[in-house]
Design a protein that fits this description.
With 431 residues, the chain is of the alpha/beta class. 42% of the residues lie in helices and 19% in strands. It contains 17 helices and 14 strands. A hairpin with a 5-residue loop joins strand 6 (243-248) and strand 7 (254-259). The longest helix is centred in the middle third of the chain and has 31 residues, at 172-202. The protein starts with 12 loop residues before the first strand and ends with a helix.
Length: 431
């Protein structure tokens, strides 16, 4: 008989519950598809589903959310399958969460709490942990009174990682102080990002951001394009921390391409707010690659979720390409197509060449590799090249011989010194 090790983590047995009501918006409602996604989220968090309850009701019960009879049915189910957790696909108010926990005799969470728990597990960078911690505290604050006893009893379970299990003794005043501190630290992150962004803009380095629904294949695509080596598994929220790599589109055009956290329906607003420090990069990107899982029957609904969040993050005017991924899993010969649409398989590489061609069309802005002969009394031109172009080689002879990759605005300033690689038309530069 094997002894249970100290590090062995308890597997939560959870019943999933949801309400479908005409009084709720489509985003707020639960249905069979959203409950399937909730089950995938539960598995990602390390739990297992032992039952499901879905109620159709005209309006939510203000006290227990579900109807009285359905709550009794849910309690009986929990006892029968020995569940220690109930997770609602809908958002619950703090009072509903408290009443349901007391009535059912097990910890009750909602979808937001489950997603926050997954993010707490997956955050690796200091910035990512800051963002998750801020979102957790904002979620926890209105639930503080009702959650203390449950967190003490359920320590280490889904929904209690992070600040919950180490700050049980902290009162509201201290929680608010922590929120203020975290917001200040993330403000500093934004300041640093702004400085980095200004440097990129000065050097005219295009930025591409990969966005899409969780598990659409964003990390696999970045790996294929750049060899980034990001773990790309078939599970939700496998990538949390943003990864940025350089992609060489040609010998004169390089871009920065970033993988971002996957979007999901009913994403907790605390996370949207907290992750603006990272996701605000979308607003300043030169191009968005919206990766869509073409093999998912719900791809249209998922794409709409992404579009709404892009708008919420202020990036609705950023140019984009729709990249329909996993097309190797589609049946039939007709693939998604259009001027701003590319069908690919990031896993096999099919269609990626066409995607690269599209990127070149959009982002190659006339940068050229040239040779320059600069007089010694014009040494300031060399300094300018180091600041605003990519200097590859410098030799000192009768003149300063420079090999450089120059964007168009720099070419206009050094046109008199070009000896090879570009022959400017005089008329082009005349007013």
């Amino acid at each position: 008989m094997f002894e249970k090790t100290f590090d062995e983590q308890k597997i939560n047995r959870a019943v999933l519950a949801g309400l479908n009501s005409p009084a709720l918006s489509r985003e707020q409602n639960a249905n069979e598809e959203s409950l399937e996604e909730l089950e995938a989220l539960l598995e990602t968090a390390g739990g297992t589903c032992v039952g499901t309850v879905l109620q159709n009701k005209a309006t939510p019960d203000p006290r227990t959310f579900l109807g009285e009879g359905k709550v009794a049915e849910l309690k009986e189910l929990c006892q029968g399958v020995k569940a220690d957790l109930v997770i609602f696909d809908n958002d619950l108010s703090p009072s509903q969460q408290r009443v349901l926990t007391e009535t059912l005799g097990v910890q009750v969470l909602d979808r937001s709490a489950l997603i926050l728990d997954i993010f707490a597990q997956r955050a690796r960078t200091a910035e990512g942990r800051l963002q998750v911690e801020l979102a957790q505290y904002k979620y926890l604050l209105p639930r503080l009174t009702s959650m203390w006893s449950h967190l003490e009893r359920q320590e280490g379970a889904i929904g209690t990682r992070g600040p919950g299990e180490t700050q049980l003794e902290t009162d509201r005043r201290l929680i608010r102080q922590k929120i203020t501190r975290l917001e200040g630290e993330l403000k500093e992150v934004r300041r640093i990002r702004s400085t980095q962004r200004q440097r990129r803009e000065k050097n005219e380095i295009p930025v591409v951001a990969i966005v899409g629904y969780t598990n659409a294949g964003k990390s696999t695509l970045l790996n294929h394009l750049t060899g980034a080596g990001i773990p790309a598994n078939n599970r939700l929220f496998d990538t949390l921390d943003t990864t940025t790599r350089t992609l060489e589109l040609s010998d004169t055009c390089s871009v920065l391409i970033s993988d971002t956290v996957g979007f999901i329906s009913k994403l907790p607003h605390q996370l949207v707010e907290a992750f603006k420090a990272t996701l605000e990069e979308l607003e300043y990107a030169d191009l968005l690659l919206h990766v869509v899982d073409a093999s998912n029957p719900e791809w249209q609904e998922q794409a709409q979720v992404v579009e709404r969040l892009i708008t919420e993050l202020g990036a609705w005017e950023t140019p984009r390409l729709d990249v329909f991924n996993k097309c190797d899993m589609l049946e039939g010969d007709i693939l998604p197509h259009g001027e701003d649409t590319v069908a690919i398989s990031a896993r096999t590489g099919a269609g990626v060449d066409r995607l690269l061609d599209k990127l070149k069309e959009r982002l190659d802005k006339g940068t050229l590799r040239v040779k320059l002969a600069i007089p010694y009394d014009q040494g300031g031109v060399v300094d300018m090249l180091y600041r605003e172009a990519k200097v590859e080689k410098v030799e000192y002879g009768e003149t300063i011989e420079v090999d450089a990759i120059c964007p168009p605005k720099v070419l206009g300033r050094v046109r008199d010194y070009v000896t090879e690689g570009w022959k400017p038309e005089k008329e082009f530069w005349e007013d």
